[in-house]
Amino acid sequence: MLVFVTGATGFVGSHVAQVLAEQGADLRLLVRANSDPKNIQGLKAERVIGDLRDPASLEKVMAGCDVLFHVAADYRLWIRDPEQMYRANVDGTRAILQAARANRVRRVVYTSSVATMGFTSDSQPADESSPVSLDSMIGHYKRSKFMAEEQALKAGRSGMDVVVVNPTTPVGEQDIKPTPTGRIIVDFLKKKFPAYVDTGLNLVDVKECARGHVAALERGRSGERYILGGENLTLKQILDKLAGITGLPSPRVKLPYAVALASGLVDTVVTGMLLRREPRVTLDAVRMGRKKMFVTSAKAERELGWKTVPVEGALRRAVEWFQENGYV
After folding, report:
1. How far apart are the C-alpha atoms of 52 and 62, rounded to whole Å?
2. pTM of the full predicted structure?
3. Which residues 6+ apart lie within 8 Å of 117 measured at CB?
4. Class of the CATH domain delimited by 2-177+204-230+294-311
């Protein structure tokens, strides 16, 4: 089986590629010319140069492939030119699906995000059927992923065999950029977390998340979405776990939402708009945090054999990886 993987140099994609390689799949990895290959060094795979923002580069390099894992995405909570994010996430998804159709790829596993789910203010866990719309998406990342997921589901309705997975918030090693969640860990290690806000996330071990992708290939139903989640934790609980792992103190000061919102507004305007640098605290991130992003993975448990595992081991591996690779 020849498997085409996008995003293999990134965080989740590199783990997906590793699981596939361990299971004996032949791999062809789409790599941008300027991508950092660190995460795929030593991986037995064919590499082809291409870019999701360049549709002409995709169809030819996918020739002969049986399966597509489309994991690549622009995952940032602040971007100077939002149009670039829509080109990568929405237009890029449309283009890679068209290339898969042209090459008669047997099955597509599309990596969406828990960000596309419908969350409520009462912290009740969301599932794949929770009501949601584009209007409820906060920020360009969530909007672009929602629109990209619609492209994947549309392809499924038109006859392609497409399974969608919705990872929650992966943590672990190889978070090379790092992701916004990885930055929480790095900031904690740098003692830049003097206070916290009342918010919550679902954390999932990135290795388990990668195995869930392969389970979706093998067992998922076409046209369906599957949440790949782990533990529902408040931000304070996450920081307390990091404190237990590292011996560093966990912050005790809880910021009121209004104060956090004002801080995000100032940082976004001054750092982002005036100084043209990435803000440490974005307004969109604060607005997202008003609702705890808690979920249930019951559907994946029933249909994919998914198992929810404690996330502390993944947090520990993330801490060690960031320390060993010079982030701290």
Report:
1. 12
2. 0.92
3. 126, 127, 128, 130, 132, 166, 227, 293, 295
4. alpha beta
